[in-house]
């Protein structure tokens, strides 16, 4: 039996008071226009210019930075300047590099673990005073770091930790921003139904955190770990105070290149580029996994 389609209503028989149907507008393409590409290109060039300037001066000699008619093509002295930085006995380049890698890696891993654990508690567990405690944690970000330098130095001096890596690792094991970041992410990405299902299956609170919270938190944890590593790598103020020249981190060691009466900026900027190479390699190897993890979390959310 064939279905009979309803006859179209003649134009004269239509109700004039009925709202007229709007024609669907053509959907525009999702590709951005030239303004977006031009803006992104300008931002990219502005971001890359400091690296190019460092390479330009770092590949020249001591007179390059003062030469008004300098060439904008990098010279051929970068390897010699880099060798001068590495071979400088006052810098202790290789021990400083190892110290930066160890301290930044431990700080990043600790901040990710404790921030994810605390964020899970604030986001999905109900306990008395939880919202007010979260407000207190966030409020600590308004306290300048410089206010705690003197008591921290006195504390680690009494403990005998001055000049050791533990003095820069222990104060940075947790992060108020990391707790807030993971709290907001887990609150939005993990449905309460998954937690109830895990509890019905007999999982404990910590087992629920490991099986439900940790997989859901991977995109945010990867981003938090990456930026925490970069922040710890570039930290100069506190390591410069508490560490000595025999056991420095890389930024503190490179600052010794400017301690002489005559500063050769070609060698200084060559050292700056050397300290940037590990971060660039980290972004190259971890950037793809970071973006894929964020996209995976967005699709699942």
Automatic annotation (TrEMBL):
<feature type="transmembrane region" description="Helical">
    <location>
        <begin position="34"/>
        <end position="53"/>
    </location>
</feature>
<protein>
    <submittedName>
        <fullName>Cellobiose transport system permease protein</fullName>
    </submittedName>
</protein>
<dbReference type="InterPro" id="IPR035906">
    <property type="entry name" value="MetI-like_sf"/>
</dbReference>
<dbReference type="GO" id="GO:0055085">
    <property type="term" value="P:transmembrane transport"/>
</dbReference>
<feature type="transmembrane region" description="Helical">
    <location>
        <begin position="101"/>
        <end position="123"/>
    </location>
</feature>
<feature type="transmembrane region" description="Helical">
    <location>
        <begin position="161"/>
        <end position="181"/>
    </location>
</feature>
<keyword id="KW-0812">Transmembrane</keyword>
<feature type="domain" description="ABC transmembrane type-1">
    <location>
        <begin position="97"/>
        <end position="286"/>
    </location>
</feature>
<keyword id="KW-0472">Membrane</keyword>
<feature type="transmembrane region" description="Helical">
    <location>
        <begin position="132"/>
        <end position="155"/>
    </location>
</feature>
<keyword id="KW-1133">Transmembrane helix</keyword>
<dbReference type="GO" id="GO:0005886">
    <property type="term" value="C:plasma membrane"/>
</dbReference>
<feature type="region of interest" description="Disordered">
    <location>
        <begin position="1"/>
        <end position="28"/>
    </location>
</feature>
<dbReference type="InterPro" id="IPR000515">
    <property type="entry name" value="MetI-like"/>
</dbReference>
<keyword id="KW-0813">Transport</keyword>
<comment type="similarity">
    <text>Belongs to the binding-protein-dependent transport system permease family.</text>
</comment>
<feature type="transmembrane region" description="Helical">
    <location>
        <begin position="220"/>
        <end position="241"/>
    </location>
</feature>
<feature type="transmembrane region" description="Helical">
    <location>
        <begin position="261"/>
        <end position="286"/>
    </location>
</feature>
<dbReference type="Pfam" id="PF00528">
    <property type="entry name" value="BPD_transp_1"/>
</dbReference>
<keyword id="KW-1003">Cell membrane</keyword>
